[in-house]
Amino acid sequence: MPKLKLPKPPVPDALVPRAKRPGTTGKTRPLDVAKESGISAIDWVDERTSLAGAARWMMFRKIPKGTNWFYTLGSATLFAFLSQTVTGVFLAMYYIPDTAGGAYESVRYITNEVFLGEFVRGMHKWGSSVMIILVMLHMARTFFFGAYKYPRELNWVIGVVLLILTYVMGFTGYLLPFDQRSYWATVVGVNINGTGPLVGPYLNDFMRAGPDFTQSTLARFYSIHMMLVPGILAALIGAHLYLVAKMGTTAPPWMKPEKKGDVDREGA
Question: Which of 226, 166, 214, 168 is nearest to 187 (CA)?
């Protein structure tokens, strides 16, 4: 009996290469097919999410004349935060905050035995100091350039909260190795917070998770450092970037406004 030939299923339009431009010759290369498929996949996602408009609104913006390297401090701070996030996730894969001895041993294991563990831990350790310095420089640039004034007051308030949360991240992360230096430095820091008026004693008990430094203190610092503060930071950074894109960037204080042209004077 003759074999029954079934028609082949049609190729989806998203995977069909676009027509060549007039005048081009040669066969379609696999790289061209892959490129067109990637473009089609992005178009497919954009058709269902409409993210292209938001991305263009966020990235393609007018900037004032005189913009210089001082304006990159915010982007540098964002890069430091992303670096801390990535390295922190890798460290959390090996860190064990079950007991004080377990925390110390897990940090020792990361530093001495895990592949590139010392490098990742060093990036996270020194990256925290770099992030704090960048946040302070970014805030100083904003203040001296007058970017906190109307209509950007809300963004300035969010920036102040981000600065405080960055300090909280550095303070809570300092205890996690649970060696002698981190333990006694945290004891001093918590006791200083306890001297505050009214809320000081309550804040002291909250941070220690009780009257003394115990395993619960380590667990509380770890949960604040790993889950609570990063989530708030990410949300506030998103709001901060949205307001920057919406309100625009302020010009440097030494840039004077241009004079109106003859047409404007005649119209006035």
Answer: 214
